Amino acid sequence: MGICEGRVAIVTGAGNGLGKAYALGLAAEGCKLIINDLGVGAHGEAGLTKGAAEQVVDEIRAMGGEAVTNTNDVADWDAGKRMVEAALDSFGRLDAVVNNAGFVRDRMFFTCSPEEWDAVIRVHLRGHFCTARHAAEYWRAQAKAGNPVDARIINTTSGAGLQGSVGQSAYSAAKGGIAALTLVQAAELARLGVTANALAPNARTRMTNTGAFDMDVKAGGFDVFAPENMAPLVAYLVSGQSKGVTGQIFELKGGTIFLSQGWTDSPAHDKGARFEASELDPIVRKLIETRQPAKPVYGAA
Fold first, then answer.
1. Residues 148, 237, 164, CA angle at the centre, nearest 5°?
2. Does 79 reside within a domain?
3. pLDDT at residue 222 in the model
4. Three-state DSSP string of the chain
5. How confident is residue 105, by pLDDT bands cut at 50, 70 and 90?
6. Is residue 266 part of a domain?
7. Which CATH number is 126's domain given?
8. How far apart are CA 280 and CA 215, in angstroms?
9. Domain total for the chain?
10. Range of the domain at 163
11. Residues with a known catalytic role
12. What does each C-alpha distance from 112 to 40, 46, 173 come to in angstroms?
């Protein structure tokens, strides 16, 4: 019996890459699934992977699992509600939402168009809102009715969102927003029995197809950047074993797992009175020198 036996989860963007790895890993642990994928390409091109969700459902059923296809747009408000309803109609419950769907439109900030910016923010940030918002409403109703709730929201942030990435201003902004959203969800939903955590994966997918994640894997060797490496952590977070683990940003690279420590305060300089603008330069520079160094922006010189 797997650690997710009897649990029901929605996985968005589950037709390829990380989402597919999550779905197959969850199914192997006994989870019943709503497999969502719109069938778009890595840059949001319509119809490039049409049928991907259905193929993943077929794989899950072939291994003896239970899954239902969903091809709704994750950033559509009503579609988010339909996904939750699909879980309830198909399996009678919903225990987790795994927000994974997204695409990239890489541009330097000075060439990024409003349309590209809006498209990336929409699929990532609004896409993380819609389904989880309807799920939270369902869990709140269950809690108010006196039914025990032990539910999960698992979001997908990125190193780009935690430290920035050159050429990915919109993507970085969206993923940074998702990290902050996760903290708020964890704080607000704890009393309902809902945890919220986020992942910053290091994996080879369509969106990271830049060469940075390429490596030669010898026969029988460990592929550090295989998407499947992320799946056990997702299964753990969906399972009942992770009860009480909330408000965390997990980073995982191959067989190495660690937590992002996020924004934190440096040592302070207290004058005890209002500063003069002319005296701030040496104080600011001293604060920068004495703080813990931040991780560098990806791609910065």
1. 130
2. yes
3. 84
4. CCCCCCCEEEECCCCCHHHHHHHHHHHHCCCEEEEECCCCCCCCCCCCCCCHHHHHHHHHHHCCCCEEEECCCCCCHHHHHHHHHHHHHHHCCCCEEECCCCCCCCECHHHCCHHHHHHHHHHHHHHHHHHHHHHHHHHHHHHHCCCCCCEEEEEECCHHHHHCECCEHHHHHHHHHHHHHHHHHHHHHHHHCEEEEEEEEECCCHHHCCCCCCCCCCCCCCCCCCHHHHHHHHHHHHCHHHCCCCCCEEEEECCEEEECCCCCCCCCCCCCCCCCHHHHHHHHHHHHHHCCCCCCCECCC
5. confident
6. no
7. 3.40.50.720
8. 47
9. 1
10. 8-259
11. 158, 171, 175
12. 21, 21, 13
Cα pseudo-dihedral 148, 72, 249, 288, rounded to 10:
-140
Please say if the pLDDT value at position 175 is more than 60.
yes
- Token digits for 44? 């949001």
pLDDT at residue 42 is higher than 50? no
Give the separation between CA 2 and CA 276, rounded to whole angstroms: 63
